[in-house]
Amino acid sequence: MTTAPGPLEQLIRQRIEAAYAPTVLEIENESHKHRHHAPMQGVTSTETHFKIKVVSSQFAGQRLLQRQRSIYSLFKHEMAMDGGIHAMALVTRTPEEEQK
Fold first, then answer.
1. What does the angle CA 19 – CA 21 – CA 26 come to, to the nearest 5 degrees?
2. Do residues 23 and 61 touch, judged by C-beta distance below 8 A?
3. In this structure, what CATH number is given to the domain that contains residue 66?
4. Per the domain annotation, does 51 fall within a domain?
């Protein structure tokens, strides 16, 4: 069963596409896998955990930590708010790295 992307997932897609013009952007909502975790008790949001793969030439010359920090910076507000994004597992590659 595939569900339509929620508002946070749509926001993630919009911001990453605008900032990085990725050749590949895959977003998987994994929130259902984390519902039983203690920090998620009482949280009603269905959009708290995401697995995201971004392939962009804009990552050329950047270290992994720089890439991830730049993505996280796009979502500072959503990660700070109650019921917002709790975690993002990121894979960030250049097109050349993706080809290997």
1. 100
2. no
3. 3.30.300.90
4. yes
Task: Looking at the chain, list the stretches that DSSP marks H as alpha helix, in order from N- to C-terminal side.
Answer: 7-20, 64-73, 76-80, 95-99
Interval 57-73: pLDDT, tens: 999 999 999 999 999 99
> Hunting for tokens 């700070």 — which residue is that?
80
Give pLDDT tens digits for 18-46. Answer: 999 999 999 999 875 645 544 444 444 56
For the chain, the domain total comes to 1
DSSP 4: -
Residue 85 lies in a domain: yes
28 within a domain of the structure (yes/no): yes
Closest to 74 (Cα-Cα) out of 23, 27, 37, 5: 27
